[in-house]
Write a structure and sequence with these properties.
Blueprint lengths: L2 E8 L2 E3 L5 E2 L3 H21 L6 E7 L5 E6 H8 L1
Antiparallel strand pairs: 1-2, 1-3, 1-4, 4-5
Helix pairs in contact: 1-2
Length: 79
């Protein structure tokens, strides 16, 4: 099963995911990244803070970015 890495982009920089997570395919990884980003943004906003999250870059084991999930996309897909 392929492993995908979720590199979280924030206003402070990039939080690299060195471990990755196995998913059946890129579509499954993208769905999970959208849901994860939605939850992270919601948690920040629930505490009255402005979100620092910008998005998640999904890459393969070689570091090639295969998809990008933005905050706007995560919110639109989960409302």
């Amino acid at each position: 099963m392929p492993r995908f890495h979720f590199h979280v982009r924030t206003s402070l920089g990039v939080e690299a995911d060195d471990d990755g997570i196995p998913f059946q395919n890129l579509e499954a990884a993208t769905v999970d990244a959208r849901a994860s980003l939605f939850e992270m943004v919601a948690d920040q906003l629930a505490t009255g803070r402005r979100t620092t999250y910008l998005g998640i870059d999904i890459s393969d084991d070689l570091g090639t970015v295969l998809a990008v999930v933005t905050v706007e996309e995560a919110i639109d897909r989960n409302v």
